[in-house]
Amino acid sequence: MLAIIYDLEMTVKRKKGEFAEIIEIGAVKVAEEEGSTVIVDTFQSFVKPVLSPKLTTDTVKFTGITQDDVNQADHLQDALDQFVAWIDTDDYALCSWGPDDKTQFLKECRQKRIPMHWLRNHNNLQKQVSLAMKRENNQQVGLKAALEALEVPFVGKHHRALDDAYNTALIYIRMKEHIQLKRNEVKEHPNYESEVVYRDAQEDEPINPFAALASWNKNTDK
Fold first, then answer.
1. What value, to the nearest 5°, has the Cα angle with vertex 143 and ends 142 and 146?
2. Model pTM above 0.85
3. Domain Exonuclease spans what residues (predicted)?
4. Exposed, middle or buried, 216 (CB in 10 Å: 0-12/13-18/19+)?
């Protein structure tokens, strides 16, 4: 099974009820070649936000992504079409550092009525690596701390999708013997089974059905 290790950057939300949007997708392919586990390809795409098209100062400062970057980008559906085409196989596992990026995909694709058949075989590498490192009280180790513990230098810039995905892949390669890629389906997550998009009777624009979950959602800052 091909490992697709990805990372997302989102708009920074500071107020209760705000909806973060994906503004960058970065990913690497990790495969076996001649007996070694290696990075074989990379993917990067900016994404144009539509609910809040203008990036805030906080978002630009945190990610380094500019207004020009997203103005020239594709919408999420088109970016995901390119991402799935780049994966180019049915036998893959999606891997992220922590659960937040998967949650973002689930929420935003529901909001924007984007099919999620591709969001399968998802694995939380942070959880498996933290377990292998035997952190006290089941604490989850951060990406930077994991790299430092493994004495692997960070490559690129923090809070950029491709760079974070690349560095996660370095950890995956180093810790591969402790990681088991599992198969699963989106339908196994009942909180997101409904595909209903609520609409105001007087308006043509969809209403965010996840606003009531604001108190449950974790802050998307990394």
1. 85
2. no
3. 2-181
4. exposed
